């Protein structure tokens, strides 16, 4: 269940500590939305990947030289620029007003995850969601904090699957996450009509950290 008091606290913390960082990342992706310039691709991957601790560098086989993992990823995305731009452009005109928009995000996410799986040693699920988000701000961010917070806010029940059908390309965990997120979003806008996806992301992180603080100490 959505807690507006905790949401307001999380938003206040974001405005104090993180909003300027987020604004810089959004601006970079607005000013350099495409992927046909290798230098721009490298810059976006480095700044987003490290600002949000995506772990993508550890998911790519290193050549044991400085920056080799990022170079490998940048070269791969640059060499597939046409497909990456095609997929991202599908979501940029959407907002959070329809469940179908979330379904499209899940579809694009799954396609990009599948593309990157060819060079990754583990799923780039979290990285892809974060990279997509800063290009298309309505896309939900997935990581361990968001997953933990969302599992508290929206308990899983079978009826949630009726929100929207899973695309064939979907990454299963991200699809289930987005179904829950769509449910949370609908609850949130009932009392906070202008709630942003990024604000809900900070809310989920707040819930996850609050859970850790409340956990009993093991002696």
Notes on the protein architecture:
- The radius of gyration is 17 Å and the shape is globular.
- The protein has one domain.
- With 219 residues, the protein is mainly alpha-helical.
- Helix 6 (99-116) runs antiparallel to helix 9 (172-191).
- The model is unreliable at 215-219 (pLDDT under 50).
- The protein contains 10 helices and no strands.
Task: Report a brief summary of the structure.
The chain is mainly α and 219 residues long.
Record keyword descriptors for this entry.
about 220 residues; globular; about 0% strand
Distance between the first and last residues' Cα: 32 Å
**Can you give the helix content as a percent range?**
55-70%
What Rg do the Cα atoms give?
17 Å
Largest sheet properties: none
What count of helical segments does DSSP give?
A: 10
SSE arrangement:
Elements: H1 4-17, H2 19-31, H3 38-51, H4 68-79, H5 81-89, H6 99-116, H7 125-135, H8 144-153, H9 172-191, H10 197-214
Helix pairs in contact: 1-10, 2-3, 3-4, 6-7, 6-9, 8-9, 8-10
């Amino acid at each position: 269940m959505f807690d507006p008091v905790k949401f307001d606290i999380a938003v206040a913390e974001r405005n104090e500590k993180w909003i300027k960082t987020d604004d810089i990342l959004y601006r970079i992706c607005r000013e350099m939305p495409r992927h046909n310039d290798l230098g721009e691709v490298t810059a976006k991957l480095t700044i987003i990947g490290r600002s949000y601790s995506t772990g993508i560098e550890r998911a790519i086989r290193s050549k044991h030289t400085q920056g080799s993992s990022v170079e490998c990823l940048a070269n791969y995305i640059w060499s597939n620029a046409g497909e990456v731009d095609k997929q991202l452009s599908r979501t940029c005109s959407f907002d959070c007003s329809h469940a179908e928009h979330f379904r499209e995000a899940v579809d694009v996410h799954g396609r990009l995850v599948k593309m990157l799986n060819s060079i990754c040693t583990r799923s780039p699920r979290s990285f892809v969601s974060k990279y997509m988000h800063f290009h298309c701000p309505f896309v939900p961010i997935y990581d361990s904090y968001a997953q933990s917070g969302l599992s508290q806010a929206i308990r899983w029940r079978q009826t949630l699957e009726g929100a929207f059908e899973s695309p064939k390309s979907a990454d299963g965990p991200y699809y289930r996450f987005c179904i829950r997120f769509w449910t949370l979003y609908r609850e949130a806008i009932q009392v906070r009509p202008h709630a942003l996806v990024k604000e809900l992301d900070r809310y989920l992180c707040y819930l996850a950290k609050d859970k850790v603080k409340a956990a009993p100490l093991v002696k």
